[in-house]
Design a protein that fits this description.
With about 400 residues, the protein is mainly β. Helix content is about 10%, strand content about 40%. It has three helices and 39 strands.
């Protein structure tokens, strides 16, 4: 075959195969809070729109990109309600050189960024705050699916989320919250990635999942949920909490100073109403309080949770909690087959390992525990679920205490 026919065949291949996959009608939407104008066409940086509200009028299509100019500041939320499709996600990202595009939602919106009933969406590279007078729930990023069935392939990456002043009376608000609610139609995530984000000074939760389909008669768990490589510090309540998932992966995260402000029970990294959760290679440190207050927790209505090869240190409540109410029923399968293996606990307080309530076939093995010379803690505490929040003076009767020689001061 001569060179020219071969070239023509190659061009035909590009037209018939690759171009449709790339999205022939995909377009960029440029936004610039300084030099933009909502009367522009947004096709080029020089003809960018100014407001995020203008973006909501656009009918985003699969493969479209929303490009937010570096150095821009918006005092309004960014909302995505349109879906991409397989291999053609809708992408929201920073563009240009300079400071991250910043969204300040305080006093204006409950959320800074929201993905509402949309799938195949990727958001990255933004700075988000949501400060304001104390009051109701607030979110840095809210990913909410209601009555949509299966929401596929959503990613939140490389975000700097800070100063989100939500309410510490509710766990379902804070830095990044993903919720699947199915009052009319069972709804779940299939492919949700939350990675490489910095989350600082938020209330109440750092990264939290919400689901109302977690009982035996309504079990519709999220799948392929991955939470990794995130850094969280100064969190009002819980750090990272997947809920209503099967096979969630929580790895390579650092959570420091969780439970800084919230009342009640808080843990740095834990799960609830899940199957087959793997929590590995994380650091949990300086969790405050003793109403729980551990670095890690395998909670109730859950099966086959693995907590492995993590580093827990200086948590006031201890290293790990495994718990479940004693009552087993349609809304609680108990805590079954939790495995805690190969972790390191250093200078954790109160009770290093706590077992409470209806636990079956738990295994705790091959962990390394270091205590300081002045520490006086319960190495292993086993008590009913109702005793989780006992104060220090009450634990004298309930916990078997021991003094251990410190491996280092």
């Amino acid at each position: 075959m001569t060179r020219e026919p071969a070239r023509r065949l190659w061009l035909l291949f590009l037209i018939l195969v690759l171009l449709p996959a790339m999205g022939a009608n995909a377009r960029p939407y440029h936004l610039d809070a300084v030099d933009g104008n909502d009367a522009n066409d947004a096709l080029l940086p020089g003809t960018a729109w100014r407001s995020l509200a203008r973006l909501r009028e656009a009918k985003l299509e699969p493969g479209d990109q929303v490009l937010l100019a570096a150095g821009s500041v918006w005092r309004e939320p960014l909302v995505v309600t349109r879906s991409g499709r397989k291999n053609l996600p809708i992408i929201v990202r920073a563009a240009g050189i300079g400071a991250r595009p910043r969204i300040e939602a305080g006093g204006i919106s409950q959320y800074g960024v929201a993905v509402l009933n949309a799938e195949y969406v990727e958001v990255s590279g933004l700075e988000v705050t949501n400060d304001g007078p104390p009051g109701g729930p607030r979110y840095g990023v809210l990913i909410s699916q209601r009555d949509v069935g299966v929401a596929r392939n959503i990613a939140v990456r490389d975000m700097y989320i800070h100063d989100v002043r939500g309410t510490n009376e509710r766990k379902d608000n804070g830095g990044i919250v993903f919720q699947a609610l199915g009052g009319k139609r069972a709804t779940r995530f299939h492919g949700l990635t939350i990675e490489r984000n910095i989350i600082w000074r938020v209330d109440r939760s750092g990264i939290a999942g919400i689901s109302d389909q977690v009982t035996l008669d309504r079990w519709f768990p999220g799948e392929r949920v991955v939470i990794r490589d995130n850094y969280l510090e100064d969190i009002g309540g819980d750090g990272i909490v997947p809920r209503g998932t099967d096979g969630a992966l929580v790895e390579h995260n650092i959570v420091r100073y969780a439970a800084s402000r919230a009342p009640g029970y808080n843990v740095a990294i834990w799960q609830w109403s899940t199957d087959n959760t793997l929590i590995q290679l994380n650091e949990a440190a300086f969790t405050q309080g003793r109403w729980d207050g551990q670095g890690f927790d395998a909670d109730f209505n859950s099966r086959r949770t693995t907590i492995a090869h993590n580093f827990s240190h200086d948590n006031e409540g201890g290293f790990v909690l495994i718990c479940s109410p004693g009552r087993i029923g349609p809304d609680n399968v108990g805590n079954q087959r939790t495995l805690v293996r190969g972790n390191v606990s250093r200078h954790d307080g109160a009770r290093v390992i706590q077992l409470a309530g209806g636990i079956s076939h738990a295994r705790i093995e091959g962990n390394v525990i270091h205590l300081g010379g002045q520490q006086d803690v319960a190495m292993v505490a086993a008590n009913p679920m109702a005793g989780l929040a006992q104060r220090r003076e009450d634990r004298q009767q309930s916990f078997r205490r021991c003094r251990c020689r410190a491996l280092w001061p």
